[in-house]
Amino acid sequence: MISRNPREPGLISIVIPVFDEAANLDALIPRLFGLLEREGLTSEVICIDDGSRDQTWDRLVAWRAHYPALTLVGLSRNFGKEVAIAAGLDIAEGNAVILMDGDLQHPPEVIPEFIAQWRAGYDIAYGVRRNRDHDGALRRALSRAFYRVFNSISDTLITADAGDFRLMDRKVVDAIRRMRERARFMKGIYAWVGFKSVSVEFAVTERAHGKSSFSSKRLFGLAFDGILSFSTVPLRIAMYAGAVIAFASIALGTYYLVRTLIFGIDVPGFASIIVSTLALSGFTMLQIGLMGLYLGRIYDEVKARPLYLVREIIGKAAASEIVGANSALSLIKGPV
Ligand code: UDP
Ligand code: MG
Q: Which of 66, 212, 305, 329 is 20 to 30 A off residue 178, Cα-Cα?
């Protein structure tokens, strides 16, 4: 147990990235506000519309008429969940910020437990799924394999069960806000910032309406992104492999030279030449490709484009002062 004075909650921000969640919002918003009222929490709820193509924005605007504590941020297009979260964190003003999905998979009823842990002194309370039955066996096996590989080659250790459903203290949020990288592997970012954390179990339910935006292909891409953002070991593996092959070829060359000097030239050996040429060029191409991946990433980052662009904000008069440089509002008003 951490001994510290209990925190006064003050303002609590709830950040919800939404992409095509019109049907789910109609159930989530009243359920969430009902809970916040029952708990007597001073709170703001920030929904980030991540370029939805359905009625999401209209539904949000309609709900705002009932709940003025709702702040709406519409991004100019779909930037992906990770970036939508970044936009939410930029705008949230609370002493603690709670992240949750908009598809009812993260039950709002867990929020009081998050807040209790935070008031007891923890900086982060993260939700851990009690059940993973909704995922197939193959996906679970692949996911386990990914965490094993990631943790064996990265200095930043991540846990399989800590997801985006979490409460973060203001200082954690400020730390994450300083990380403006484009390749946003959230599990890596959460682990990198550190701070005192505690897990809170919750039962994940089936998505209420619609289907997950994270297809196997997108998850695979995310896993790849994660490894490239938090580890340079793949580069080193390529370098070691190159070094081993280079030394082996020098030894082989020396051997052939000596043999030729002693026994003269013999013709056989096409097979070995072809095999070694192919193997070498294969390894070389692999290494160039790998370097290209990291280089592409550097290119993306040095362009220093804004993480996201805002189309519209409803509900926060002074938002321009809250949102720092390099983000949405300073861009709407022109460069700073
Ligand atoms: N989401 C988003 N942008 C996207 C994809 C998803 O803001 O490009 C939101 C989505 O509306 C939901 C949350 O992120 O609130 C989690 O998405 P989803 O349910 O598709 O992912 P899963 O639950 O399968 O991890
Ligand atoms: Mg979901």
A: 212
